[in-house]
Amino acid sequence: MACELKGRKISVIGAGVSGQALAEFAQEHGADVFVSDKKEIGTDVKKAFESKKISWEDGGNTLRVLEADEILVSSGISPDIPILKDAREKNVKITGELDFISPYLNGTVIGVTGSNGKTTTTSMIGYYLEKMGYSVMTGGNIGNAAVHAADKSYNFVVLELSSFQLHWAKEFKCDLAVVTNLAPDHIDWHGSYENYVAAKANIIRCVAEGGSAIYQKRDEDALKIKECVRKFPLSWNKCEAEVRGICLDEELHAVWINDAEDHIKHKMFCFDDVKLLGKHNLENTAMALGALEIFNVSDVSSDVIGSYTPPKHRCAFAGSVNGVTFVDDSKGTNVAATITAMTSLDGSKIIILGGQGKGEDYAPLAEAVKNYTKAAVILGAEKEKIAAALASVGVENYRLASDMEDAVNIAYSMSEAGDTILLSPACTSWDMYKSYNVRGEHFCAIAKGIIEREE
Among 25, 139, 353, 414, which one has the highest count of C-beta atoms within 10 angstroms of its own C-beta? Predict the structure, then answer.
């Protein structure tokens, strides 16, 4: 049941994409809204707030935040910030973004999370549903704030959900939960890998009665899936008629879904239908089309499957010259994502690593570099730590770079025909760039310059 907002005093912490959208929604529904951000609020956002008569402060969270009936925390806000500790002491209600919007959502709700691949999988589900003629809102952590689906009429609401958002989720409900995979990420925010997994697993607890979950079979124990949830584990093997799940069959080069209750095995697509690079994108496609099958949306054509264009900077082809291919995986901001990129792409690779770290252990990264690449180029704030990790496992063919242009040119000088130069940093971009998007665009621009020069 949606809460009546008219006349309520609402404080919103955070004035980013989700915070601004939450504030504007609450104000439009009659609430007296105050927004507080510890960082400086952008000029355009301030103007938008002023036009809607929303009060705000930036540069810190003052006690005015507590003068509210309810505090809404936008995406990424830590529960440990001082103002929220004060709110708990004063018994001011604190509500996460997902819990706040859940009562206002109409239609079938699909929540997608995971350490890697969640953006691609979310956008795939939305794309395929739209191609099949349904009205769809695709949003959440993908850049279109989840609250934009509130009070609207859609057949499907498909939301990418971060571990930060899920940390706060207590009352949020979805009809299908998709967990692409689990691997260490955001340890600096959650404090431990166990806490991070617990936040991700929250999505399973949020599955509505009679709902379903798609996930990697290897992650089943970690997710602690309730018995009342219809389970569709994904694995690389042959489908067995009596076992519910999604199977990627390497022998037949096809993907199947099976609902054991009906003993029906249905072929969803052939590997060759997918035009994206890497085995991980076969998994993403399997989960996306599996989501459609669960809601009886089947027979998506091979043309539609092949027409999907992924979000930028996710193992994206960035050009080639003299037999050397450039691949932009700037979205590879954690160790697991970069290992996935290295192991999913065929052929000889030179990898570009480094940026601002998240408190992760680089030992698994170093082993993957040793086993799956011919060389590495390292830049950014973490370059000394990554270099030490590589050296500790016997990797000798690595170079340190001063910036991205230096890194790409070094990588090209080390390459020969048949090589792939892969940007997959295993780190965030924040030491050198505003976002991974800007980092990826810079990499592509440098690659384009090399290609034009060589041609």
Answer: 353
The CA distance from 25 to 27, in Å, is: 5
Does residue 344 surpass a pLDDT of 90? no
What does DSSP say about strands 174-179 and 207-216: parallel, antiparallel, or unpaired? parallel
In our burial notation (b when 16+ CB lie closer than 10 A, e otherwise), range 21-45 reads bbbbbbbebebbbbbbbbeebeeeb
CB neighbours of residue 261 within 10 Å: 8
User: CA of 235: how far to CAs of 114, 218, 442, in Å?
Assistant: 16, 8, 36
In this prediction, residue 185 carries a pLDDT of 67
Closest CA to 110 of 132, 133, 138, 131: 138
Identity of the amino acid at 120: T
The tokens of 187 are what? 């340890």
pLDDT attached to residue 227: 82
Average pLDDT over residues 369-381: 97
Q: What is the C-alpha separation between 32 and 84, in angstroms, rounded?
A: 20
Distance (Å, rounded) from C-alpha 243 to C-alpha 310? 31
User: What is the C-alpha radius of gyration for the chain, rounded to an integer number of angstroms?
Assistant: 23
Token pair 């519910």 is at which residue? 244
How do beta strands 254-259 and 264-270 pair? Answer: antiparallel
Supply φ then ψ for residue 337, to 5 degrees: -65, -40
**Which residues are within 8 A (CB) of 47 and not within 5 positions of it... i.e. 6 or more apart?**
none
Biggest CA pair distance of the chain: 67
CA distances (Å), 147 to each of 18, 140, 206, 381, in order? 8, 8, 17, 35
**What are the tokens at 228?**
């009342």
Q: What's the pTM?
A: 0.78
β-sheet bridge partners, residue 136 = 156
Angle between helices 43-51 and 17-28 (to 10 degrees): 10
